[in-house]
């Protein structure tokens, strides 16, 4: 069980870093801090290319993996399996 906990801990750390990077790669929607740092200069009127759609899908997949691992760690801790 210790190996399972260590594996899940590693997965949650990797997923957290990857999720942070993926979220930061998204295009700003304007009106916030993204405009302050120049994000509003190349704003297209809400259009989304193939790369943006794939980035959205990848972000959702990584977020779901992150949530599943967090729930698994919580259940393991609740039932004293770790």
UniProtKB/TrEMBL annotation:
Topology versus the membrane: Multi-pass membrane protein
Which Gene Ontology cellular component terms are annotated?
plasma membrane
Q: What are the GO BP annotations of this UniProt entry?
A: protein secretion
Q: Which InterPro entries match?
A: SecG (IPR004692)
One GO MF term: protein-transporting ATPase activity
- The keyword Membrane is assigned to this record: yes
Q: Keywords, A to Z?
A: Cell membrane, Membrane, Protein transport, Translocation, Transmembrane, Transmembrane helix, Transport
Where is the chain membrane-spanning? Answer: 6-24, 58-77
Subcellular location, principal: membrane
Question: What compartments host this protein?
Answer: Cell membrane; Membrane
- What's the family? Belongs to the SecG family.
User: What does this gene product do?
Assistant: Involved in protein export. Participates in an early event of protein translocation.
In Swiss-Prot or TrEMBL terms, this protein is called Protein-export membrane protein SecG
Q: Which organism is it from?
A: Bifidobacterium moraviense
